[in-house]
Specification:
elongated, mainly alpha, Growth Hormone, Chain: A
Amino acid sequence: PERRRPLRAATLRAAVVEVTTNRRVMTVVATLSLGFGQMFIFLSTAPQVFADVFDRQDSFPFWFAGVAMVAGLSGIVNASLVMQLGMRRLAVAAFAMQCVVSVVFLVQWLAFPLPEPWGFAAFFAYMCAAFFMVGLTFGNLNALAMEPMGHIAGLAAAVIGSLSTIGAVLIAVPVGQLYDGTPVPLVAGVALCSGLAFLLLRTVSESYTPATP
């Protein structure tokens, strides 16, 4: 209780300044924005792709439930791998894999189109692979962002969550507007976000060393 900070405007302002001036934290926040951004792209565009491209709008909830189950499974995989590989290394690998999978699907769709139902099967497999990476990134990224902010954990978590969500919306809205009746804008947006997140996260050190006074 003696370490609890009072809820005052000055305290909130100081927390915002501390979070936004920490390079490590803001790099991870930018990475989170890219990660959330690609998820928002999926959530806003996937229903249209299912309806317009594959004529499966009625069964979309069931297919998406399957994707969600895959995402949940990835959390279990993350729990078994994170202690061996480290949070940053695992997230970097996940973003790299997601970028590669997106590029491969994009090339397949544009250069080697598959007849139905194989085209839908390829897209569904791609969605499962992309959402599997969610469990290997978001929890680890949040933990990385919070490492230097333990002394203001509550306020820092609120600031980090707000900034990353705002950034994600700013990323997802323009990509959503590019929808052209094909999965191409969606997949290209995910590939770009994953690639940028991979590059950003590589600039963050694996372990955080607090500054000595």
